Amino acid sequence: MRVDSMKIQIRNVLNDIAPYIPGKPIEDVKRELGLERVIKLASNENPLGCSSKAKEAMVDAINKSALYPDGNCTDLRNALAEKMGLKPTQFFFGAGSDGIIEMIPKAFIEPGDESIMAFPSFPLYETSIKLAGGICVQVPLDKNYCFDLDAMAEKINKRTKVIWLCNPNNPTGTMYTREQQDAFLQKVPENIVVVLDEAYYEYVTREDYPESLALLDKYPNIIILRTFSKIYGLASARIGYAISNETMIGYLERVRSPFNVCTYAQVAATASLDDEEFKMLSYSTNKENKEFLYNEFNKIGLRYLPSETNFIMVDTAKDSKEVFQALLRKGIIVRPGYVFGMNTWLRVTIGTKEECEEFVEALKEVI
Ligand SMILES: Cc1ncc(COP(=O)(O)O)c(C=O)c1O
Q1: Residues 238, 305: one domain?
Q2: Residue 284 has what pLDDT?
Q3: pLDDT-derived band at 4, boundaries 50, 70, 90
Q4: 218: domain CATH number?
Q5: Which end of the chain has fewer CB within 10 Å, C or N?
Q6: For residue 214, what are the CA distances in angstroms to 44, 111, 206?
Q7: Is residue 74 part of a domain?
Q8: What is the pLDDT of residue 253?
Q9: 47-88 pLDDT tens trace
Q10: How far is the CA of 6 from the centre of ligand 1 (A)?
Q11: Looking at the domain assignment, is residue 143 inside a domain?
């Protein structure tokens, strides 16, 4: 039987959702283009890898492979609680923050409810809202590619259940300030959940960035999201966490599957928290190489968005599909802006100095 003649009836919502197309894997590009060296600057991973303590912890955990993981993530929960001065019950874990983003609408959105996000912002919010039967209300970024929090507040109505703020924002790398966030949160009725996605929190350099942890008592409706995929370099382990109050965490616990975070991820994350040196090295390397890329873009005369993350959005003034393909042929994988509705832009992850240099040389040739 031909697959396209199947009688299976899918949910209507699937007609409105495209499968996620990830950045091309390095090995595929090598094989397809016959290249020996390929650099991936497409998924905002840590170019330095991860902490050696995390690696050792994962190797040690190999002997536990036959056992289900600790469904409560007890050691990591306690370690984070101690580090942040919060209660262990204020944490919730997922297979990446992706895993938590998928669960939030399951807990808080009924079919027909509205959920507000910016555009462009992290695309998984939209998919997760729609899969729960919700209506995704997208509010364009302002002319500086920053969140337009006033416009987002204006979209709030009786059907609004969840609002997604991504700070700093992916794919633009831009941020809003502590004052802006506080002014916004004051406008949000307390029955609406506000997700503060802080995946790039550890890379932020600006002093006026919000300290959301300090707001947990003031705003019981916020859920803060952080991840071990970025500065901790554990993207493949799949582990992220949410911070809120016990009641909100209790709601999320009802939609979680029992063993959603694997043992390797748990032990690697816990060990990473002990390696401040690796984190600081990742932070300073990123800062230096960001400055390098800014300088190079300035020399070439390319507009870029000041970034508080480990990636930069740069406007090549050319079709991003073509620039992307041309860079690919030179062995450099970036994220073309058209996938975010920014047709002439590229999102490039800040790699090692060598990778950044190679990227700049290739970019000059391509454009
Ligand atoms: C803003 C934002 N949120 C969440 C995620 C998901 O990260 P992970 O599932 O690896 O924790 C990403 C990944 O790129 C991101 O950029």
Answers
A1: no
A2: 98
A3: low
A4: 3.40.640.10
A5: N
A6: 27, 33, 17
A7: yes
A8: 98
A9: 999 999 999 999 999 999 999 999 999 999 999 999 999 999
A10: 35
A11: yes
Ligand 1 contact, 310 CB (< 6 A): no
Instruction: Measure Cα distances from 162 to 187, 188, 316, 355 in Å.
Output: 14, 10, 35, 39
Q: What's the structural domain count of the chain?
A: 2
170 and 150 assigned to the same domain: yes
Mean pLDDT score, 313-323: 97
Q: Which of 242, 272, 302 is the last residue of a domain?
A: 272
CA of 102 to the centre of ligand 1 (A): 12
The reply to whether ligand 1 has any atom less than 6 angstroms from the CB of 102 is: no
CA dist 255 and 172 (Å) reads 31
Nearest to 314, CA basis, from 140, 122, 173: 173
Give the pLDDT score at 360.
Answer: 98
Percent with pLDDT over 70 in the chain: 99
Are both 236 and 99 inside the same structural domain? yes
Give me the pLDDT at residue 202, please: 98
187 belongs to a structural domain? yes
Q: Identify the domain containing residue 260 by its residue range.
A: 52-272
Cα–Cα distance for residue pair 109/86, rounded to 1 Å: 27
144 with 24, same domain? no
In the prediction, which pLDDT does 58 show?
98
Q: Is residue 5 part of a domain?
A: no
* Residue-averaged pLDDT of the chain: 96
Q: Which atom of ligand 1 is nearest to the CA of 239?
A: 11
Q: Are residues 26 and 150 in the same domain?
A: no
How many angstroms separate the alpha carbon of residue 338 from the centre of ligand 1?
Answer: 19
Domain end marker among 238, 272, 306: 272
Q: Tell me the CA–centroid distance for residue 219 and ligand 1, in Å.
A: 23
Ligand 1 mean position to 196 CA, how many Å? Answer: 12
**Ligand 1 contacts CB of residue 199 (under 6 A):** yes
Q: Whose CA is nearest to atom 7 of ligand 1?
A: 97
